Amino acid sequence: MKRNLTEISQELNRQSDWKALPDLIFITDQKTQPFPENIIESLPHDSMVIFRDYDHENRAELASALRYICKTKGIKFLVAGDLTLALMVDADGIHLPEHMINEAKTIRDAHSDFFITGACHANTVLEYLPKNELDAVLFAPIFATTSHPETLNDPTLTIGSSTLKDICEDISVPVYALGGVNEMTAKQLIGTGVAGIAAISGF
After folding, report:
1. For residue 137, pLDDT beyond 70
2. How does DSSP assign 161-182, residue by residue?
3. Is this prediction's pTM over 0.90?
4. Which of 97, 134, 174, 186 has a beta carbon 3.0–4.6 Å from 195's, enabling a disulfide?
5. d(CA 172, CA 163)
6. Residue 140 bridge partners (DSSP)
């Protein structure tokens, strides 16, 4: 029987050492998912939303509206790359793009209750990840994805499930798989040790 992304992410989380964490993360992107509120309404209550939409003309207003929906549903809400906005909408935390990941300690010291995630990519040097400051990392791209068109023709630019498994074994931070993850590819994540799935177009 075909399983949806939620069911697969729940299985991945059950298999992992991170059962107290959300198993499914939705990352907003108006171009790909123009109605994020519909996706959020369909998420299980223990999911997480990362509000990206860096270039949205009404970013603060949209963040506030989506934060409200998440709060009523018991879904964690993080703002990507903008501490001021995260504080303004009373977000549960912040998601740091890779170029901001070295700010994790400063943010943690000032906001100890924040849930802090960071973005990591295929060429990330793992030993450079800040120690004990990130609650989770999102590794991408795991599979080929249209958001990174170069991966469609060059599989060496993706991380793949085998390398992802090695990453999960090498670091003591929960890992979420991002990039080309959908109902078809997510099954390849079984046994990797990921805490769950992060997706945009996969919903």
Report:
1. yes
2. HHHHHHHHHH-SS-EEE-SS-S
3. yes
4. 174
5. 16
6. 121
